[in-house]
Model the fold of this input.
Amino acid sequence: MTGPEYLTAHARWLGDHPVTGSAGAVLTMPSKESMYVYPIDGAEVVRALTVLAHIAAAHLDDPWAINPHIYWWRAGRLDLAATTHREGHTLVSQLTPAFHHNTTTFDDTGPATE
Done:
């Protein structure tokens, strides 16, 4: 999603857009005018995190960069899903313990239900 300045403020209202899955969405807000979102419907979200981390890292040196981290949106709530940073020429992305725990409940058909 791209838009006017500080489009990223709309991250709280992702549910108003057709970009969320059954377990929410992961997103990165690398600059004030862009947000990259992936719906969470199953275990494939782990691969999507790698793509989002690379997209975010590509914006690190842009004017008005915000941050390279990945967030988890679910039911109007926004939590940190993974941190991303460079170590030399290597991109390092680390899942938060809470997000990692939740991804272990996903199978190929979606998140586990209780």
Observations:
- Strands lie at 25-31, 34-39, 70-74, 77-87, 90-95, 106-107, 110-111.
- The first helix runs from residue 45 to 58.
- The chain has two helices and seven strands.
